[in-house]
Amino acid sequence: MKTNKWTHILCMGLIVAMGVQLGACSSKKEKKAETNQSESAELEADQDIVVTERQMKTVGIRLGKIEKRSLSSVVRANGELGLDPQMKADVNSLVGGVIRKILVIEGKHVSRGQTVALLENTQIVELQNKYLVAMQNRNLKLQEFARQRELSVKGAGTQKYLQQAQADYAMAKAEVTGLKQQLRQLAINPQAVAAGRITTMIPIKSSIEGNISKINVSIGSYVDIQTPIMNVTDNSKIHCDFKVFEKDIKSVHIGQTVDIMLTNQPNVKLKGVIYEMNKSFENETKSIIVHTRITSKHSITLFPGMYVTGLIDVGVGSVNAVPDDAIVKMGSKSYIFYLVDKKVDEGKASNHFKRMEVITGTQGLGYTQISTLGVLPPSTVIIKNNAFYLASMMSKDED
Fold first, then answer.
1. How many domains does the chain have?
2. Nearest to 199 by CA among 130, 132, 120, 134
3. Of 54, 155, 198, 224, which has the maximum CB count within 10 A?
4. Is the pTM of this model over 0.70?
């Protein structure tokens, strides 16, 4: 019985060991298959692109090397269009009251000092009455001062009464001057009030020339001195506010030129120059605002808040560059093609190329700055033009 028991245990152990070994073999086979598949895909992506000499001549492909070129170095920055503080204004009233008329609509162009609304306030009637009373009082004080001065000349008056009359006249005159200034601040003509033309409404005027961007009230609304009735903006001197990050600040200075592109209209390109830079970081961004004046003439309408991209010219440097036609975009990436081998088969010469991904930089005079994502020796030969032809060959091979 004991022998049978030990024989049974031994058989079970052998079965378990064989199962583990089979599982291990299966796992190794799967890993090997995955490795082979990955290597196959990598090899396929890295396959040579073969172009015969005849094809090279037909298409006009030229070979050469990556060159050192003096191109303008740029700092890329994003931002938006904005206005200087003096180019935008709130239209307010100096007194509270009820809006009786609105004389403009949003978008309308207005001049500085143009009446845009009429406001009614019963207190302005009282102010005009006070002005009339003050004028009468001033005239009486002037007459009394003249009378005391005449008596003093004749020796019939006293110096004390003359001085008192002079002081009373000066106070009455100052009161008239103050009330007149208050009327002018409310855009009420003091001469019209003096002629008896009392008004119950005061004109609300724009303090700058520009366009009405927003109207915040309607007829019948009550407004106080803290309520903006409407907003006016002058877009004629719109500028760009770019965010330049800490690592690039040392390279950016007032007076540098900027190529400007509208983010949502990339075909629109403008020129600008930096005229001011903030001296403190924006909250949580570690960037400063660089103010850029638009210098190029344009016919498009620009609005504050439009997003823009700027290429700030920070000087000329010697960089690795290739002709623009040597670069081809495939999806979101850019590539160049370099020669890896030349072969002759049955008397026919052929060139073998591979592609290399590159990061593009500044452009100028038909050349583009590049940085390769792989290492290429200085002696590497590349295709300098018609790179799209090799890209099309790759597409056909993939299909």
1. 3
2. 120
3. 198
4. no
